[in-house]
Design brief:
By secondary structure, the chain is mainly β. It is built from 1 helix and 8 strands; from the N terminus they run H-E-E-E-E-E-E-E-E. A hairpin with a 5-residue loop joins strand 1 and strand 2. The model has no long low-confidence stretch (mean pLDDT about 90). The chain binds zinc ion.
Length: about 130
């Protein structure tokens, strides 16, 4: 549990510094995003936190019309699954310019928006 807390904190701290991190296994070099306390490939707990390039492509998405209270003013919004360059996948809100529609394979870049209580939030935007 302590290890899970540690990797979650590493991820949240990185988002607040406008970057994405994952964990890299020091045995087999496998990368997980978000970071995990154990390697998903070989099970090793010897992992290092590593910065991940904030770019990827839109794998799939859905449009949210009924949102939780924290996101009511955002409705409707796009929740996408983004495939990063290392084939890892991250779910997140996708914000596109007016008139641009989501499309399979669309190139996206990570952006960071200041949220409540000063904490940053990851947003995916189209690469122009
Ligand atoms: Zn490993």
């Amino acid at each position: 549990m302590k290890e899970i807390t540690r990797v979650v904190k590493a991820y949240e701290d990185a988002i607040n510094q406008n970057r994405i991190v994952g964990s890299q296994c020091t045995s087999c070099q496998d990368i997980s995003v978000p970071p995990r306390p154990l390697c998903k490939n070989c099970g090793s707990s010897e992992i290092e936190i590593t910065t991940i390039e904030g770019a990827g492509t839109l794998l799939t998405w859905t449009v949210i019309h009924i949102a939780p209270p924290s996101h009511l003013e955002r409705v409707p919004y796009i929740l996408g699954i983004v495939e990063l360059k290392n084939n890892q996948k991250l779910t997140g809100i996708v914000e596109l310019e007016e008139g641009i529609n989501p499309d399979f394979g669309m190139e996206l870049i990570a952006d960071f928006e200041e949220g409540q209580e000063g904490a940053s939030r990851l947003r995916w935007r189209s690469r122009i």
